[in-house]
Amino acid sequence: MTDFSNYINNALRPNITEDAIVLDLFAGCGGLSLGFEAAGFKTLGYEMVREAVDTYNQNLQGECHNHFLSVGFEYPDSEKIDIVIGGPPCQPFSRFGNQKGMEDARDGFPIFIDAVKRIQPKVFLFENVANILGRHKNGI
């Protein structure tokens, strides 16, 4: 097991080689950012859970801010951001939840779309559950 752990730690060791900045919304502990950092990108995260922010900042090279996001939030240095990624909370859409979709206060989909519209990144990646398409079909 130690050999595998060492392999993973070396394989995912960040070596920032790219100029593009990746903005990670709903960053959690940095799972999506970790992959981008391993590919050579600098990351900037936003997360509302303090413990997740602390974990991100302790284990990744990028910086994560403890902030509750909302539509219209002004991201610092947004002109330098080329990639927007994020995994908003899935509870509003999960087949195992209440499936309130856009009626659920935890719906981060509008925040993510607002950020993409205003920042106009070259690339964006949105991660969530399969049922999000069914719950947002009338809102897109």
The percentage helix is 25-40%
Main β sheet profile: 5 strands, parallel
- The gyration radius over C-alpha positions equals 16 Å
CATH topology: Rossmann fold
Number of strands: 5
Describe the strand arrangement of the main beta sheet, using strand numbers: 3-2-1-4-5
**End-to-end separation:** 46 Å
Class by alpha and beta content = alpha/beta
How much of the sequence lies in strands comes to 15-25%
List keywords for this structure.
single chain; 140 residues; alpha/beta; Rossmann fold; 31% helix
Give structural notes.
The protein is built from five helices and five strands, in the order H-E-H-E-H-E-E-H-E-H. The chain has 140 residues and is α/β, with parallel strands linked by helices. It has a single domain, classed as Vaccinia Virus protein VP39 (Rossmann fold, 3-Layer(aba) Sandwich). Strands 3-2-1-4-5 form a five-stranded parallel beta sheet, sandwiched between helices. The model has no long low-confidence stretch (mean pLDDT 82).
